[in-house]
Amino acid sequence: MSNYYVTAHATTSYVPVAELRTQLLLFGDTSYDAELQEILLAAEEFLADFIGEYLTDTTVRLNVPSFGADTTLPHRYNSGVVVSYWDSSNVAQVLSSANYLVDSSGEYPVIRITTAPTDLSTDLSFAGYIAYTTSLPSVPSKLSRAVLMVAADLFENRADSSTVSSNKAHLTALRLVQSLRGW
Question: Do the Cβ atoms of 120 and 64 come closer than 8 Å?
Fold first, then answer.
């Protein structure tokens, strides 16, 4: 699988701020809500990096070296797939969806180009790219609990320079979601 990068990070977390507020025993105190939202997003991204899937809508871009072979997407779930290529003027052009299909019959989706573009750039290192949005269709409860563990730790130790307790909480969270890794 090729490397991808995130072009649009999630802006709201799967786990509600109110749930983290309760976890932290901050009943009725909404003064930390903006910070708690950022902490939840960081915790979810930490766990998403570990399991290889994003919890909420995240847009990614996957570079395509050439259009002569199938391209396997690194995420099981996708929507809004758009294939683009660099034309001979080095301008990105969208490939018509009639010229490719998304084969979801295997473990990971595969983009199969049925009609490759003919006006490809020869100047760039990649022939094109695939952009799509990915997120889990449902989040297992142990993943939600792991998010709360990591987020609570990040909040409680935000000014602490010691990493010992932080490492323990994060290790526990990773063990909790280990079975979800690369599903």
Answer: no
Structure tokens at 15: 């786990």
Helix (H) or strand (E) holding 181: none
Vertex 34 angle, CA 29 and 39, to 5°: 105
Q: Note whether 129 and 95 are within 8 A (CB).
A: no
Inform me whether the pLDDT recorded for 130 exceeds 70: yes
How much is the pLDDT for 162? 55
Per-chain mean pLDDT for the chain: 89
What's the token pair of residue 98?
């009639």
DSSP assignment of 15-41 equals S-HHHHHHHTT-TT--TTHHHHHHHHH
- d(CA 81, CA 133) in angstroms, rounded, equals 7
**Closest residue by Cα to residue 33 from 45, 12, 18, 13:** 18
User: What are 10's two structure tokens?
Assistant: 């999630």
- CA-nearest of 10, 33, 164 to 24 is 33
Checking if the pLDDT of 164 tops 90, the result is: no
